[in-house]
Design brief:
The complex is a heterodimer of chains A (about 110) and B (about 110).
Chain A: E1 3-6, E2 11-14, E3 19-26, E4 32-38, E5 45-51, E6 56-59, E7 62-67, E8 72-77, E9 86-93, E10 100-102, E11 106-111
Parallel strand pairs in A: 2-11
Antiparallel strand pairs in A: 1-3, 3-8, 4-5, 4-9, 6-7, 7-8, 9-10, 9-11
Chain B: E1 4-7, E2 10-13, E3 19-25, E4 31-38, E5 42-51, E6 54-57, E7 65-67, E8 73-78, E9 87-94, E10 103-104, E11 108-112
Parallel strand pairs in B: 2-11
Antiparallel strand pairs in B: 1-3, 3-8, 4-5, 4-9, 5-6, 7-8, 9-10, 9-11
The chains are: A mainly beta (about 110), B mainly beta (about 110).
């Protein structure tokens, strides 16, 4: 069966460190993968998209990698700040479908 | 810009009651979606629409109906609410292109007693 796995345990890090979140998938052949941020009581907000033919994408302090051989995407936040504390969701398409499927998300807590 | 607006924000129903959740977007997006989010389950797709007058089932469609009579509106109906439908419901929209990002509303917290 198709699965998208994100670490269900919260990631706790100190301010200034790099946070790395993982998104693994099985039985998918996605054309792209997206990352969203969700704050408590709010809807998810789009952060970055990476296509299957791209290895890495950057936006300010954010970096996403996409390894279709390992079936994994890594999401990095460098120089993390307490304001980065949120839940981060990955989403990928079902191979040719425009409809994304979401992982369960990983909570990031950045301590001052 | 309002973006995606959901109404109501909160609602409490008794088992067996019916209700409609309204989603409106002002970005002229072709695609609209309804997701539910439960603790530990992530976002699960209920129904979606790829254009005015068309709807399709998602991952968890049972117990829900939808309508897209106007391009900017997507309605989610519960005909006979059940406690299992207690959840946070999110509407989203996107353009009709591959790889397009989704814009989400702020959600509706629904409790069915």
């Amino acid at each position: 069966s198709q699965k998208i796995e994100q670490n269900s345990e919260a990631l706790n890090i100190q301010e200034g460190k790099t946070a790395t979140l993982t998104c693994n998938y099985t039985n998918y052949s996605p054309a792209y993968l997206q990352w969203y941020r969700q704050d408590p009581g709010r809807g998810p907000v789009f952060l970055l998209l990476i296509r299957e033919n791209e290895k890495e994408k950057r936006k300010e302090r954010l970096k996403v990698t996409f390894d279709t051989t390992l079936k994994q995407s890594l999401f990095h936040i460098t120089a993390s700040q307490p304001a980065d504390s949120a839940t981060y969701l990955c989403a990928l398409d079902r191979g040719g479908s425009y409809i994304p499927t979401f992982g369960r998300g990983t909570s990031l807590i950045v301590h001052p | 810009n309002a973006g995606v607006t959901q109404t109501p924000k909160f609602r409490v129903l008794k088992t067996g009651q019916s209700m409609t959740l309204l989603c409106a977007q002002d970005m002229n997006h072709e695609y609209m979606y309804w997701y539910r989010q439960d603790p530990g389950m992530g976002l699960r797709l209920i129904h979606y629409s790829v254009g005015e007058g068309t709807t399709a089932k998602g991952e968890v469609p049972d117990g829900y109906n939808v309508s897209r009579l106007k391009k900017q509106n997507f309605l989610l109906g519960l005909e006979s609410a059940a406690p299992s439908q207690t959840s946070v419901y999110f509407c989203a929209s996107s353009r009709r292109q591959a790889n397009e990002k989704l814009f989400f509303g702020s959600g509706t917290q629904l409790s069915v007693l």
